[in-house]
Design a protein that fits this description.
With 127 residues, this protein is of the alpha+beta class. It contains 3 helices and 6 strands, in the order E-H-E-E-H-E-H-E-E. It has one domain: 60s Ribosomal Protein L30, Chain: A. Helix content is 28%, strand content 28%. Strands 1-2-3-6-4-5 form a 6-stranded mixed sheet, covered by helices on one side.
Length: 127
Amino acid sequence: MTTRQRIAPRSKFEEQTGFTRALRVGDRIIIAGTIDDRMPPAAEAGDQADRIFGLFAEYIAELGGTMADVVRVRMFVTDIADADAVSAAFSKHLKATCPTGTLVAINALYRPEYKVEIEAEAVVLEG
């Protein structure tokens, strides 16, 4: 039987809605769309992305992996002009790992101060 392990809720929203920010099932770690959770978040999209990747490192470590285990990243920006800054944060944290990556522009996020939301998947290989 495959086990499910999740990180503890980081917000009342997670508890109220019953969703998990990061979940490990077997060798896979799935991280839900994540924003810069400081209030107020960083003003620049690249700084928000840097914060998000830092959170990912914490979540993945808590679930028994490392950033080297990341295999897929999806990045959503509200202004395509921020693509280079968000991509630079991606490179800072994951260039050596070379996961697959998608970056798309979307109309809006939950609050207007959020400029980027990112989700990720990792596979933790034994040995």
